[in-house]
Write a structure and sequence with these properties.
Shape: globular
CATH topology: TIM Barrel
Distance between the termini: 47 Å
Largest sheet: 6 strands, parallel
CATH superfamily: Glycoside hydrolase/deacetylase
Number of domains: 1
Order of helices and strands: EEEHEHEHEHHEHHEHEEHH
Length: 283
């Protein structure tokens, strides 16, 4: 078996008919997952990624599919598609937003589906304390785990940017980050019976205090929103690259993965994207 040249990590949030920001529609998501399956890609788990970064081997055409936050539509729309094509994904769950209650219907069962608003409307509902209308319940998380469509890891407990909340009060910032990570770990152990050493940063932000707190909490694999690099053997596991998936079809995603994973084209593509980003920042 030829080893993968690197592992592209895909970043999703919503799969919803409402579309909008950081969302793909169910139709597009199915095109994308079907396209990966037809092209012969293997959807890895986090243990396989960790082993690869440490020098192990994985199938030559490998990806890691990730979802951030834990929206209800990950169950209602993404889970059935992943199950249909034998793919799996990684859910980075905001543990304090997951609720209790019975499993709700998902697509394909013939039952009416819960509403799935766009991202802006979802944020407003969460801010109003109506998280259960748009976020996963622990029962649904457990159902996805049992089906093998998702594995679940920490995205902190409340998704709070403590660097913003605490301003110049560094000791308070550090204390809040430590509590945030401890609460998330405790919730995962209480509800699922286990917790891993994989963590995804809220809004992709981190600094030295965040990284130190993650180390002290037992996290070793840290996921960013930095798209401008490749996850190759020897990559720093505290800086795992991911790119955002757009609401475009399977052919777009396969091209984007090719650009990301090619050992020669990939670094040049990322350098070009970084140059464009610098130009935008100067404007």
């Amino acid at each position: 078996m030829n080893n993968a040249p690197n592992i592209p990590v895909l970043m999703y949030h919503h799969v919803t008919p409402s579309g909008g920001m950081i969302a793909v529609t169910p139709e597009v998501f199915e095109q994308q997952i079907a396209g990966l399956a037809r092209a012969g890609y293997t959807a890895l788990g986090t243990a396989q990624l960790a082993g690869y970064l440490a020098g192990g081997r994985v199938p030559e055409k490998s990806v890691l599919i990730t979802f951030d936050d834990g929206y209800l539509n990950n169950w209602t729309y993404a889970h059935p598609v992943l199950q249909r094509y034998g793919m799996k994904a990684v859910l980075f769950l905001i543990t304090g937003w997951a609720g209790q209650g019975a499993v709700r219907p998902c697509a394909g069962l013939g039952a009416p589906l819960p509403a799935s608003p766009d991202h802006d409307a979802t944020k407003r509902l969460v801010a109003a304390g109506r998280t259960d209308e748009v976020m996963l319940r622990w029962s649904e998380v457990q159902a996805m785990l049992a089906a093998g469509t998702f594995e679940v890891h920490s995205h902190t407990h409340t998704h709070t940017r403590w660097d913003k909340q605490c301003g110049a009060d560094v000791p308070a910032k550090r204390e809040h980050i430590a509590r945030e990570l401890a609460d998330s770990r405790a919730a995962l152990v209480r509800e699922l019976g286990r917790v891993s050493d994989h963590l995804c940063w809220p809004q992709g932000y981190f600094d030295a205090d965040y990284v130190q707190a993650a180390r002290e909490a037992g996290f070793r694999h840290l996921y960013t929103t930095d798209a401008l690099g490749q996850n190759v053997p020897g990559t720093d596991p505290e800086h795992i690259y991911r790119f955002a998936v757009r609401n475009l079809g399977g052919s777009w995603l396969n091209r984007r993965i090719w650009l990301s994973r090619h050992p020669v084209v990939g670094p040049r593509y990322h350098a070009w994207k970084a140059w464009k980003k610098r130009l935008r920042n100067r404007a």
